[in-house]
Amino acid sequence: MDANNIFCPVRFGRLVNKYIVENRSRLLLILATPLVAMTIFALLMSDGDSREGYYTGVNNELGFFVIMTFIFGMKLSSGAFLSMSKPKEALASLTLPTSQLEEFLVRWLALVPGFMLWSVLCALFADSMRVVFTRFILHGVADFTPWCDVFTGSGGPLMWPENAFYHIVIVFMLLQSFFFLGAIVWRRNHFLKTFFVLSVIYGIYCFVAVIITRMLSWHGVGYFIMTPMVIMSVVTILINYVLVYMRLRESEIINRW
After folding, report:
1. What is the pLDDT of residue 115?
2. DSSP character at residue 161
3. Is-contact 15 92, C-beta < 8 A?
4. pLDDT at 118 (0 to 100)
5. Which residue, among 236, 170, 193, 199, has the nearest Cα to 82 in the 3D structure?
6. Coil, strand or helix: which one is 45?
7. In sequence order, which residues have a C-beta less than 8 Å from that of residue 152 and are 6 or more positions away?
8. Treating both helix axes as pointing N-terminal to C-terminal, what angle do 164-185 and 190-215 enclose, rounded to 10 degrees?
9. pLDDT tens digits, 184-235
10. Which of 7, 139, 156, 186 can bridge 149 by disulfide, Cβ–Cβ 3.0-4.6 Å?
11. pLDDT tens for residues 128-186?
């Protein structure tokens, strides 16, 4: 393999196929878990659907879908790149006609855009099962969640803040990037350590934001917290991705010698 050829579409496609074949059982389990969990929760909410309390129920349903996506996403992220930095896995990767960047991209595509897309599909399926179960089994009243309002970022009848969906995506990617990095920094209990550090950082940030807001006599605490967070999040995500990749490259050089 040419050392200067760090990315080749044909080679990358073969690597993706190899990754799917070797991890198909694990991938099926990963795909099935959020689908089953979201569907069960949606069905449990079916009995409470009514015209009067519908949107309250949907908000609870969407909130659970978001929580499940974050929990599964963070857990998967904590071990995504950990194996690549281990001597056995690193040495095995050296025998493959691929670059470290291509191996990084395979995991990133599967766990970031791939997992987010699958979570949305799971939510759509679970919501459909709720409606079908309520209408045809319980003979009750149920409507589909106005997903168009969710994806376009408008609050609509859901009573969600505008652009809430996009903020959720940014926060998800931000937290995921930290768990990517935490799994490489800490060898043991990396998930708990990363969670603790993020909790402390977020607590300090909110505390400072509230103090500054009160000192300046501003009334938009939420605006003050969210506006810089969006900008900082995008920059931090990119920095974390670069740090993870550099650490993997360092591991490859160490294990090569």
Report:
1. 92
2. P
3. no
4. 94
5. 193
6. coil
7. none
8. 130
9. 777 777 778 888 888 887 777 777 766 666 665 555 445 555 566 677 778 8
10. 156
11. 998 888 888 887 777 888 888 888 877 666 667 777 888 888 889 988 888 888 877 77
Q: How far apart are CA 155 and CA 59, in angstroms?
A: 11
**212: Cβ–Cβ under 8 A, 6 or more apart, which residues?**
224
Distances (CA, A) of 167 to 134, 174, 184, 229, 253: 31, 10, 26, 10, 38
Q: With CA atoms as reference, report the closest residue to 40 among 135, 147, 126.
A: 126
* Token output for 246: 């550099």
Do 141 and 49 meet the contact criterion of CB atoms below 8 Å apart?
yes
- Spell 91-124 as b/e; 16+ CB within 10 A means b: eebeeeebbbebbbbbbbebbbeebbebbbebbe
Task: Count Cβ atoms below 10 Å from residue 201 Cβ, excluding itself.
Answer: 11
Per the structure block, which two tokens stand in for 110?
């599967």
The DSSP annotation for 168-226 comes to HHHHHHHHHHHHHHHHHH-SSSHHHHHHHHHHHHHHHHHHHHHHHHHHTT-S-HHHHHH
59-114: pLDDT as tens digits: 677 888 888 899 888 888 877 776 665 555 555 555 566 777 787 888 888 888 99
What the block records as the tokens of 158 is 């859901």
Contact 45, 57 (CB under 8 A): yes
Helix (H, G, I), strand (E, B) or coil at 160: coil
Report the C-alpha gap between 73 and 115 in whole angstroms.
7
